[in-house]
Each structure stands twice: as C-alpha cells, then as structure tokens.
C-alpha cells in the first residue's frame, strides 16, 4: 500500500523499525501495534521500516493485526538505504546494537510526503490514546521527546558520562530518550539532511558514543527539541501503566525474564492476543512463563532451579488444559517460598518481643 493512499488529514502516522535476525523480534512489533490499535478510535497507519530479515510469515501476521482493527500498514524496505549512513555508524551498532536502531534516522527520506510521524521502539506498549501524543504542541521545534532521566541524574554530578555527553555535542537539560519521538518531517527536511549529518557525526564521534542513534539525534537537534510529559515514554516499569506509553528500557525485557512488574502483565496480556500468542496452546503458554521465571536474572540461583523443577513436574504430571490453574499453582509456590524466606529473616528481637 502506498503512503499516498493513507495521507488523510485525520490519520495518525506511526513508524516502527524491525530488524529480525532471529525471527522472533517482529512479534514485539505486533504487541506495539495491537496495544496501539486497542486504545484509539482514529485512523492509524503503521509504517514498518524493515530489511530482508522480516519473513513473509511475520509480515502477514502484522498485516492481520492491522486488518482486525480496520487499520493500515505500510512496509518499507530500509535495508539498502541504511548503507548511506556510513561504515562508522553501521560498525558501531553492529557491535552492541541492532541495525534497526538506525532506521529511525531514515524516516524523513523514506516517508517523503508525510509532514509528521511518531516513532516508537518495539519494546514499548501503548496504554493510552495515541492521539494524545500526536496532538502535543511542538511549538517551533522539529523533534519532541521525553527527557532521559539517567542523563538528568548524571548531570547532578561531575561524572564521566556528563563530560562524554557534552563532548559529543548534546545538551543535558534537553537530552531525550529516542524510543518515543514525534518528528516534524517537513521541518526536518527543510533544515537538515539527516543522512549526510549522520555520516559526518559518526565519523567524528563513534568512539565516544554509547547510544548511537540517541546521541546523534540529541546532538543534531540541540536547541530544536520540545520536551513532553513523561507519560509518553514511561520507563517507571514498577509504576502505574494507565494513560502511558510504557518503555522497557532495562533488562530483563518482558520476554527475557519476569520481575512481576505491571509492564510485564500488560505486555503478556497483549501478546497472547496477537497471532503469535494465539498459536500457543495453554500448556505451551504455561511452559513459556515457567521458563521465563526460571531465567529471570534477579532470582537467586536456587529459586531459579526451583522454578525449573516445578516446570518439569508440570510437564510430567499436570495436564495443562487450564492455564490459569497451572499459573495459579506456580504463584502459590512462589508466595509460599517468599513467606518462608521472610520468616527466616525476621529479626531476633522481634521474635523475642512476640514471645
């Protein structure tokens, strides 16, 4: 579907980036899309920037999500265009990041007829009406985002990170997280050449950059960034998810381990309604969650081993036709062990007082 087919005045344009070497990343884009569509009643077109790693099967599943909500998708191959960003940029992200993280820098070029777009990372979950972000006043700025709180914290002390951020040309008071952005594409195209500027910036700053796309965007748009409310890029994963776009910036991600956060609950409730989640049997879902609990890095080694043993017992002895009963048993076991651990750690003085 061409972009011109969806250029309506009331259409919200959202951009996602998918580089999927493992074949498992596209499902997270599916979670973003489903959560986005569930919370809005306005027309939305999701532009998916991808390369050859997006399989036809995963593409069809993403299309199915949009079709279910009578929304639209626009698939754009960004693979060949990303080479324009230069060897330094590609080498930098290849070492620690995904090439897909650079696709957002190509949005003005790959969507030449759009005036505005929202960019979302695929580790976000939308729990608000996207119109609220779309309608944020940008004043005379080209870019809008939420302040990166880690940078604000480091600015309160003379740290190596503070000095590094200043050396690469960023302004700490307006340094934003690049996982959720509103981009004035018409203004950006008029004032900047992102590709050319990226080639120059990465050639000069690659050795000092720890967050490649984010550092570059903050340096380039210094003085041209509108700060917006934290709820549009909410990284407080233990807090209330209502009215927010939640962003899982820390490990473990909801799909690599479980800590019991509200974001994880929101992610999995959404995931199980995607085509990927719908393919799972109740038993497979129970096994998946058990494996995640066992793999959670914050768990003590013995706790993780316990979860794995419970999982093996379920697989051997329990018919997982009722997933909620299965998960309920797991939760009860976890609470029992937590209660026992708390009793063991009770101060002796309190025990004496209780007598």
Concise description?
The chain is an alpha/beta fold and about 350 residues long.
Tell me what you see in this structure.
- By secondary structure, the chain is of the alpha/beta class.
- The protein folds into two domains: 3-233, Spore Coat Polysaccharide Biosynthesis Protein SpsA, Chain A, CATH 3.90.550; 280-344.
- It is 46% helix and 12% strand.
- It contains 17 helices and nine strands.
- The protein has helices spanning 26-38, 56-68, 79-82, 87-96, 107-110, 130-134, 149-154, 160-167, 185-191, 194-205, 212-220, 262-271, 275-278, 282-295, 301-317, 323-344, 348-354; strands spanning 12-18, 44-50, 72-77, 116-120, 124-127, 143-145, 180-184, 225-227, 244-247.
- The radius of gyration is 23 Å and the shape is globular.
Strand/helix succession: EHEHEHHHEEHEHHEHHHEEHHHHHH
**What is the class of the largest domain in the CATH system?**
Alpha Beta
Number of domains: 2
Beta percentage is 5-15%
Mean of pLDDT? 82
Ranges where pLDDT stays below 50 over 5 or more residues in a row are 317-321, 351-355
Query: What's the helical proportion of residues?
Result: 40-55%
N-to-C terminal Cα separation, in Å?
75 Å
Q: Architecture of the largest domain in CATH? A: Alpha-Beta Complex
CATH homologous superfamily grouping of the largest domain: Spore Coat Polysaccharide Biosynthesis Protein SpsA, Chain A
Annotated CATH topology of the largest domain = Spore Coat Polysaccharide Biosynthesis Protein SpsA, Chain A
Radius of gyration computed on alpha carbons: 23 Å
Main β sheet profile = 7 strands, mixed
By DSSP, the count of extended strands is: 9
Class from helix and strand fractions: alpha/beta
């Amino acid at each position: 579907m061409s972009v011109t087919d969806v250029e309506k005045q009331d259409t919200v344009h959202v951009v996602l980036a998918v580089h999927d070497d493992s074949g498992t990343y596209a499902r997270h884009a599916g979670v973003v899309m489903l959560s986005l569509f569930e919370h809005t009643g306005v027309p939305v077109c999701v532009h998916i920037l991808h390369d050859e790693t997006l399989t036809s099967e995963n593409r069809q599943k993403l299309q199915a999500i949009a079709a279910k909500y009578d929304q639209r998708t626009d698939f754009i191959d960004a693979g060949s265009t990303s080479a324009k960003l230069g060897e330094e940029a590609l080498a930098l992200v290849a070492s620690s990041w995904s090439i897909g993280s650079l696709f957002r820098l190509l949005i003005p070029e790959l969507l030449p007829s759009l005036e505005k777009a929202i960019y979302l990372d695929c580790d976000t979950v939308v729990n608000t009406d996207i119109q609220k972000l779309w309608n944020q006043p940008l004043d005379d700025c080209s870019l809008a985002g939420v302040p990166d709180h880690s940078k604000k914290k480091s600015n309160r002390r003379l740290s190596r990170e503070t000095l590094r951020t200043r050396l690469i040309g960023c302004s700490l008071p307006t340094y934003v997280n690049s996982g959720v952005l509103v981009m004035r594409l018409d203004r950006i195209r008029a004032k900047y050449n992102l590709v050319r500027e990226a080639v120059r910036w990465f050639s000069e700053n690659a050795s000092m950059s720890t967050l490649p796309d984010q550092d570059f965007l903050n340096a380039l748009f210094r003085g041209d960034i509108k700060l917006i409310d934290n709820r549009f890029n909410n990284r407080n994963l233990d807090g209330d998810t209502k009215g927010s776009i939640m962003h899982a910036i820390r490990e473990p991600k909801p799909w690599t381990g479980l800590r019991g956060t509200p974001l994880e609950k929101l992610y999995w409730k959404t995931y199980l309604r995607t085509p990927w989640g719908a393919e799972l049997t109740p038993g497979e879902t129970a096994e998946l969650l058990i494996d995640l609990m066992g793999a959670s890095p914050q768990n003590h080694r013995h706790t993780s081993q316990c979860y794995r043993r419970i999982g093996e017992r379920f697989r051997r002895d329990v018919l997982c036709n009722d997933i909620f009963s299965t998960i309920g048993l797991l939760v009860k076991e976890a609470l029992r062990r937590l209660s026992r651990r708390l009793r063991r750690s009770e101060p002796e003085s309190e025990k004496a007082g209780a007598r």
